[in-house]
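Changelog-adjacent note: as of this version, every example in the card shows the full chain rather than a window. The one below runs 143 residues end to end.
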Amino acid sequence: MTKSIPLLLALAALADAPKPRSTEEMQMNDPQEAKFTPAQVPGLPPGPTVSPIAVDPSSKGSIAYARIPAKYHFPLHWHSYTEYTALISGSASFVLDGKPYELVPGSYFVIPPKTQHELTCGAAADCLLLTRRAGPTDYNFVK
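Full-length structure tokens:
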């Protein structure tokens, strides 16, 4: 019985956790009012923060803001589903499938499934990104 108490407490905490909004709900979002928390991605060095916006009820794809610290290198990785991202502020060097790109505010990019990519935020300011995913979020880091 004592082994099941921690499990029951964890389940109760999950039940009380706020449910993410649906992408189908009316909403307005402002990155200046977003509440950012550290990204919880196994294998990712500390630094990036995220602010979830919504989850698609059908595909389970998410929409979120991400803040990457200046000079931070987000390591080479890929995802199982397409990623659609816009750089809102900052500047970054981005490598998509081995090809380098320089990103400025307003840059928009689509990353097909299983396409390797990495990003290094510029030195002058943090990078703020807005990302929508076509399916559940996963990170597959390339060693």
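Structural remarks: The helical segments are 4-16.
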